[in-house]
Design a protein that fits this description.
Elements (H helix, E strand, L loop, with lengths): L1 E6 L4 H5 L1 E2 L3 H12 L3 E6 L5 H11 L3 E5 L6 H14 L4 E5 L7 H7 L6 E3 L4 H13 L8 E3 L2 E2 L26 E2 L6 E3 L2 E2 L10 H4 L5 E2 L2 H10 L4 E4 L8 H14 L4 E6 L1 H6 L1 H10 L1 E9 L3 H6 L6 H14 L2 E8 L5 H13 L3 E6 L8 H4 L25 H19 L2 H16 L4 H12 L2 H8 L27 H11 L1
Helix pairs in contact: 2-6, 8-9, 9-11, 14-16, 16-19
The structure holds cobalamin and iron/sulfur cluster (SF4).
Length: 498
């Protein structure tokens, strides 16, 4: 069958700092192609709607799948589904991905028949049975499927993540993927899932707190096949198991692969496994995101981060000693007042690291979606991108955004301060010489994208599609109720695989 896979446009944050290849979609494409289907991918993060329209009319797909890792992309995806059905009424249109797995029924209803099905959970084990069922008629028995008629069997989970190989070769604009100065940049997955259970995050609920590792040989072979000199490691928390990080490092040393890497990890993991991170600096580890989330113990407890402020500060020292550039993430609570923003600005200016701010957002799949006692002020999907306030702010909303953007701008100026600007110009020169302009554009775009008036105006847009209402609970009780993939289903699948 002919399958067209689509990734929606970039969200606000990605307009500036980064834009990365849709690895999940490439893996779904890989699985379908391995089974003999003809597959194409259009990534609207890096290309326009015209290219998509051209593909629909020239390729004439039998099925079209849209990736919805982000809630904020849902209205756009419904629009794409309507357009696809208008152009090709017989084409089977389906959605899949992280966020849509938590709101499948609502989205199907909102799409009013333009979306035939939503696939909950991992896409690789579902896509081939789905395409076969579409061809033969009757998709209701496909694991993970949800249609307007109801739910199919529980989503199936891959036993191991060594295959399928992501279909990176299908991406036609690979040079447009970058993160900061790592331009161009590819992505890779070493592990899947997260064993922690932070209250604001849905990474653990999606995978049912499971954790799987790629074999070092597969990681080495994949990296050897990646042409880009820079690689973003998409793992939620890199190098939780030191022996795994070491084994991949040994494989790269054996293959003499050296690239520049960006990864994301936790402070306690960096403190515990410092030697692994050190070994990776020799292989090219240059940047890391550290999800600090809060600078005080009270905030860390609230988010159930299970680290102390002291761990966080010690981790920063370790990273500095290893020569790794760190971007810290802090969660802004809509309850913050001007004084609180001032304290955070002071903190951000006092450390050499880049500080990123995200706004505390309860969204489906997270525990705080159920337990947050403040009422939502909006249910517009587009505002659930952790850059907008969706619960009442203590400050008037316009003042809140002014403070938020002022804090981000101060940090950005520091990031591009004189010392960094000299470094940035050097990198810029080298990138431009190679025809890479993503990093250059990022430097100039900040004020246009991060703008309090723009953020405020986003709240005034007419709303067509809304999130469902949360049930308000003081405690979710058995947290396994939040899972997309359950261990029981995984055990059953593993049994079937043996
Ligand atoms: C890597 C990552 C990123 C990367 C790259 C994302 C990209 N280009 O796709 C970067 C750093 C750019 C990023 C940015 C953001 N991210 Co992010 N990101 C992740 C992370 C850690 C892993 C995603 C990943 O690549 N996994 C590996 C691949 C193989 O899996 P996958 O993409 O999930 O795909 C699988 C399934 O979802 C499914 N699937 C996916 N697509 C499709 C399509 C079809 C048709 C089917 C059938 C199945 C299917 O099958 C795939 C294979 O199993 C997830 C957390 C997580 N563990 O999922 C958060 C996460 C998805 N991000 C999140 C957020 C909030 C953001 C930002 C909004 C943050 C910000 N500060 O603004 C931005 C917005 C980015 C944008 N689109 O513009 C939230 C989503 C929240 C929400 N409900 O909307 C998550 C869940 C993290 C969290 N803490 O809760 N992110
Ligand atoms: S925030 Fe990080 S450590 Fe916490 S559950 Fe999510 S991925 Fe895991």
């Amino acid at each position: 069958m002919r399958l067209l896979l689509v990734h929606p446009s970039a969200l606000m944050y990605s307009e500036i700092f980064l834009r990365l290849e849709p690895l999940g979609l490439e893996r779904v494409a890989g699985a379908a192609r391995d089974a003999g289907h003809e597959v194409r991918i259009v990534d609207l993060q890096v290309t326009g709607r015209r290219e998509l329209a051209r593909e629909i009319t020239s390729f004439r797909p039998d099925a079209l799948g849209v990736s919805l890792n982000y809630l904020a992309n849902i209205p756009e995806a419904i629009g794409l589904a309507h357009a696809a059905k208008r152009a090709l009424p017989d084409c089977f249109v389906f959605f899949g991905g992280h966020s849509v797995s938590f709101v499948a029924e609502d989205v199907l209803e909102q799409a009013e028949g333009s979306v035939d099905a939503v696939v909950r959970g991992e896409g690789e084990p579902a896509v081939v049975p789905l395409l076969e069922a579409v061809r033969d008629g009757g998709v209701d028995g496909v694991p993970g499927i949800v249609t307007l008629r109801g739910h199919g069997p529980q989503p199936r989970m891959l036993h191991g993540i060594d295959s399928p190989v992501p279909a990176r070769d299908l991406m036609r604009h690979r040079r447009r993927y970058f993160i900061g100065e790592l331009d161009p940049c590819a992505s890779i997955e070493f592990t899947r899932g997260c064993p922690w259970d932070c209250s604001f995050c849905s990474a653990w609920t999606f995978y049912g707190r499971s954790y799987r590792k790629v074999s070092p040989e597969t990681a080495g072979a994949e990296l050897a096949g990646i042409r880009e000199p820079n690689v973003f490691i998409v793992d939620d928390v890199a190098f939780i198991r030191p022996e795994h990080g070491d084994a991949i490092a040994a494989e790269l040393e054996r293959r003499r692969i050296r690239k520049r890497y960006y990864l994301e990890t936790r402070s306690d993991v960096l403190l515990r496994n410092t030697e692994v991170f050190q070994r990776w600096t020799r292989l090219g580890l240059k940047y890391m995101f550290l999800g600090m989330e809060a600078i005080d113990a009270e905030g860390l407890d609230l988010y159930r981060k299970r680290v102390s402020p002291d761990d966080n500060f010690r981790a920063l020292e370790v990273a500095r000693r290893l020569g790794i550039n760190v971007a810290i993430n802090l969660i802004v609570d809509p309850a913050w007042d001007e004084e609180r923003f001032r304290v955070v600005r002071e903190f951000a200016l006092s450390v050499p690291e880049i500080v990123h701010l995200t706004v505390m957002t309860p969204y489906p799949g997270t525990e705080i979606w159920h337990t947050e006692s403040r009422r939502l002020t909006t249910r517009d999907y587009r505002l659930f991108d952790i850059q907008h306030a969706v619960v009442p702010t203590t400050l008037p909303l316009d003042v809140f955004y002014r403070e938020l953007v002022k804090t981000q701008a101060v940090i950005n100026r520091k990031h591009l301060g004189l010392r960094t600007a000299v470094g940035a110009l050097r990198v810029l020169g080298a990138n431009l010489a190679r025809g890479q302009t993503n990093f250059a554009r990022m430097l100039w775009k900040f004020n246009r994208v991060y703008n309090p008036e723009r953020q405020l105006a986003d709240h005034r847009r007419p709303v067509r599609y809304q999130l469902p209402l949360p049930q308000h609970l003081s405690d979710v009780g058995d947290r396994r109720k939040l899972y997309v993939h359950t261990r029981a289903a995984a055990r059953r699948d593993a049994g079937q695989a043996e």
